[in-house]
Design goal:
InterPro entries: GlcNAc_PI_deacetylase-related, LmbE-like_dom_sf. GO terms for molecular function: hydrolase activity, acting on carbon-nitrogen (but not peptide) bonds, in linear amides. This is LmbE family protein. Keywords: Zinc. By secondary structure, the chain is an alpha/beta fold. It has one domain: LmbE-like (Rossmann fold, 3-Layer(aba) Sandwich), CATH 3.40.50. Helices cover about 35% and strands about 15% of the residues. It has 7 helices and 7 strands, in the order βαβαβαβααββααβ. Strands 3-2-1-4-5-7-6 form a 7-stranded mixed sheet, with helices on both faces. Helix 1 crosses helix 6 and helix 2 runs antiparallel to helix 6. The longest helix is centred in the last third of the chain and has 18 residues. The chain is globular and about 50 Å long. The N terminus is likely disordered.
């Protein structure tokens, strides 16, 4: 297993960098809950406004053939209930087809539009790089989310001449401070969040997605173990749980435009 450096090596310091608004991107309903619901619960508990954008409707998910006709409505209802459990009510969809997501300009325009509307301090997204240690984290739709969001974050969000119809509609260019990526390769992770106090909320949110879990006990055991391993890799005390991210500083005091 790739070792996470004991000392947090991300440029983000929660003691210094204020977070008031966060916009989270995922491919399918339930991706955010697996990847970051503990961190999101900690943010909302601290008064941070968190919004979700799910790029597909999750129409290819599930295991029961009897659910096919209702799967989109079912997964939307699951996601909304799960989000409420961690303090989130603002949910957006791009309505792309599950399994066919690509980082097209249609998708990137939708990402830019939403970032310019919400103007978050942090954009949280799936990672654009494949995780070879657990390839299930790297569903092609997950990678497409990461690529589309990363391309949108720089340069399109902050370029007033990118997708000019957005500026004409009043959505002005915006310099995003932080990009946080989840579900990527362990060797990229440089920031951990201690979510020990929010494990129950995270698991409750995941449990809501009943259409996606043929083996609930195995799912919960795997999630608990993953959070425990993250904490151990980060050098946290025994018994702690953590979520790990690849944090990228997009714009800050030392940023030079165009470099």
């Amino acid at each position: 297993m790739a070792a996470l450096i004991q000392q947090d090596q991300s440029p983000f310091n929660p003691e210094i960098h204020r977070v008031e608004r966060v916009l989270c991107f995922a491919a399918h309903p339930d991706d955010i809950d697996f990847g970051a619901a503990g961190t999101i619960a900690a943010w909302t508990a601290a008064g941070v406004q968190v919004s979700y954008c799910i790029m597909t409707d999750g129409d290819a998910g599930g295991f029961d053939p009897a659910h096919r006709a209702d799967i989109i409505a079912m997964r939307d209802a699951e996601q909304r209930r799960a989000a409420e459990l961690v303090g989130v009510t603002d949910i957006h969809y791009l309505h792309q087809r599950d399994g066919y997501l690509e980082p097209t300009h249609e998708v990137m325009r939708g990402v830019v539009r939403l970032i310019r509307e919400i103007r978050p301090d942090v954009v949280l997204s799936m990672h654009p790089e494949r995780n070879w240690r657990r390839i299930q984290k790297s569903h092609p739709d997950h990678l497409a989310v990461g690529e589309a969001v990363t391309r949108a974050v720089y340069p399109a969000v902050e370029n007033p001449f990118a997708y000019p119809e957005l500026a004409e509609a009043g959505l002005e260019a915006y310099k995003l401070p932080w990009l946080w990526l989840y579900a990527g390769p362990e060797e990229r992770e440089n920031h951990v969040v201690d979510v020990t106090g929010h494990v129950d909320a995270k698991l409750q949110a995941i449990h809501v997605h009943v259409s996606q879990h043929p083996d609930v006990a195995a799912m919960e055991a795997a999630v608990r173990k993953g959070m425990s391993v993250n904490a151990q890799r980060a050098g946290l005390p025994d018994g702690q749980s953590a979520e790990a991210f690849h944090v990228v500083a997009v714009n800050g005091p030392g940023t030079i435009a165009g470099f």
